[in-house]
Design a protein that fits this description.
Mean pLDDT of chain A: 96
Strand content of chain A: 5-15%
Radius of gyration of chain A: 16 Å
Order of helices and strands of chain A: EHEHHHHHHHHEEH
Oligomer: homodimer
Number of helices of chain A: 10
Largest interface: A-B, 23 and 23 residues
Largest sheet of chain A: 4 strands, mixed
Number of strands of chain A: 4
Chain lengths: 203, 203
């Protein structure tokens, strides 16, 4: 059971990725599963389905349910919740910074802090000032990180990550993927995905 | 707490309505909530969003995940599962028969039996022979029921039911709605919807 591992694919703009990001680390610890945070961009995947914005904007009844459902869900989890304006936020910068951070000890904390800034505090995550503030809160020097995030290598890594997501069949976020190729889509599949990862770990 | 009540909106063609229909009665009994079975048609609602078939057919990655997810879910619930051919099934006849039955003591059993025929046994639910067999299994004379189901009154009732679903903001199935206007979409929201219905019942 050495490598019970679960990949956590998320887009910082994705609404249900917020509760998933806040829940996954304690639940994974409890389940004895290692988690890899894998930010990607839903935009190019939505575009390939003919959508130029979130399906929650394109289909208003679905959108109205999602906002109310998320509000109820966050209340149940005692998570503060504010609806981001505009929605969806542009998550490009945050995802690039996250990829830099996930090579360092502060990456996961950064991701969680971005979700909190966006969905609890109503901050804009496309603003480098917000990123700098979050990095500062983690005692990380912002300037070199923001420079690295905007370098060609970071851009290429995020593109590759998004292409891998699409190749694996992802169509939404959050999605959890296991080493044996199972996909579990949605915050409400997190517990089941962890159990699968645990039960199907290579010996 | 006299009227803790939950409306269960479903389309017989809807995949996740199958586990919901099989789960809802025991869970509701346990929760002390009365359930009203409300068959409707998703087709007209999908059409008004510009879709001429199930989104699971229109968006192949989403469809692939759904079939695998449903397979895993049914295995977890020890429910037999076969993928209906064709998908989606035409659910018009079954919904009309169900509306006749839901005025009688056999309506809910009929609904559950249709879901089993379709998703466990791979039967076609647009076939009057399948309907007659299910009715026979419930000791109900099929001919007068099938005649009533095809009468103008039944057709009008199903249209009205579908219009009410749309007016309430339904966009998918299963959906659970409460007396105070909450909507919970998806088999995975059933437990939460029952709890809501119970906690917010009028005294």
């Amino acid at each position: 059971m050495a490598d019970a591992i679960l990949d956590f694919w998320f887009d910082f703009a994705s609404t249900y990725s917020y509760p998933a990001a806040l829940r996954i680390r304690p639940l994974a610890r409890e389940a004895g599963v290692a988690v890899r945070f894998r930010p990607f961009l839903l935009g190019p995947i939505f575009k390939s389905q003919g959508w130029d914005t979130s399906p929650f904007n394109l289909y208003p009844a679905k959108g109205r349910h999602m906002w109310r459902d998320l509000e109820r869900l966050c209340a149940d989890l005692s998570l503060p919740f504010r609806r981001p304006e505009p929605f969806p936020q542009n998550s490009l910068l945050a995802a690039r910074v996250a990829l830099v951070g996930l090579d360092e000890p502060w990456g996961e904390e950064f991701c969680v802090a971005v979700f909190r800034a966006e969905f609890a505090d109503g901050r804009r995550i496309d603003d480098p000032g917000t990123m700098a503030e979050i990095l500062g809160g983690l005692k990380v020097a912002a300037a070199p990180v923001l420079a690295a995030a905007q370098a060609d290598e970071s851009k290429a890594r995020l593109r590759a990550q998004t292409e891998e997501a699409q190749r694996r069949g992802l169509f939404g976020a959050p999605t959890f993927s296991t080493a044996d190729g199972e996909l579990f889509w949605g915050n409400d599949r997190l517990e089941r995905a962890l159990l699968w990862a645990k039960q199907h770990a290579r010996a």
